[in-house]
Amino acid sequence: MAGATMDRIVSLCKRRGFLFQGSELYGGLQGTWDYGPMGVELKNNVKRAWWRANVYERDDMEGLDAAILMNRLVLKYSGHEATFSDPLVDCRKCKRRFRADHADPTEKCSEGGAHNFTEPRPFNLMFKTTVGPIESDDNMAYLRPETAQGIFVNFKNVLDSTNRKLPFGIAQIGKAYRNEITPKNFIFRVREFEQMEIEYFVMPGTDEDWHARWIADRVAWYHHYGIKTENLRQLVQPPEELSHYSKATTDLLYRFFPEREGDKQFEEVEGIANRQDYDLTCHTKGGKTGFKDGSSIPNEHAVLKQTYFDVATNQHLTPYVIEPSGGVDRITLAFLMDAYEEQVLEGGKERTVLHLHPDLAPVKVAVIPLARNKPDMVELAKKIKRNLQATGRLRTLLDDSGNIGKCYARQDEIGTPFCLTVDHQSLEDHQVTVRHRDTMAQERIAIDALERYLEERLR
Question: Which pTM was predicted?
Fold first, then answer.
């Protein structure tokens, strides 16, 4: 049995309608990807699962959907305008550009020999645009490089409108944009992506405990939805690797590259950081933005103080923040890779299957008429499909595009947990054959019992 590699996942995603190269009709646009019919369902299910676990199933969380375009001052006082950059190098011979920390000086240059790199220089990753009909520096804005800043600048709005008490969090799912120097590895590193972020505000002094609790919660979420224990690691960032505002950061690493050796197989899928009071101090009247070199910018533009009034001590304070932050695209890729399996069955027959958690599967049920040239059989299959789909909980497809073996193979590859076969006998006994994706076991179930049967097992 074989597991996933990036090449196998890319092939599956194109073949079964999960992902397509952005603007492929015109040669593509590097660093962009379009989610196809199966991909958009999977991605939406991942977001729903995350939102349900972190907002609906908790009593200490609020949701937010902040604008992508923000006042330029937001990204000035967050520090992004001055420091959000990667080191860039050019090859003097072939003129290609590379991110310095990813550049391989031994790699062969198209102009012969090894690359001849320039000295690294900073390259700001934010996309610039203009707001309004006049293009000028006064009207310049950025596409947000992360969703977090929309949460921070709305802290006081959410606090005052909900009357929340510490600790509480604000969750957001949304698009972000980074002008990556070298986007690569499918949807692992792209220029347009989606984030799922939480800013969890706590009393100073309780931050270390909450940081540990959030790490445990996020690891448990991945395991609950099928990520194997051996494929997920925790990396505690050493002090010298921490951002200057971070008290502690633990990265969750997934085995995205099993073909590599040792630790190189693992790359970040999510980070959980203790950001202390840095962000609210940046975005508050009279606050300041501190930088790694010890310099700072006083905030001269914020119109109110983003503080919390603690009744117990009768004083205003600036909360500390714990930030679990993950990319939807990377998380979706991790679920795809972990679910992928190539099997060799009895008799040498091969099968590719996605063992996706039922909550994440793009399609829950496929209804297959055994003979598509039999009107009564097809009509019964359509009726079953309509009834299951009408529940609003069971995404159902009618698959009558080939013989039963090909239908099963197609549904296995997109991760459909159950296939229902309508045959000649179904017209008489009002039963269908239910096939289970993971075991391939089959059993006869009455049509009027299908909804309950499926929902119990999908739950």
Answer: 0.92
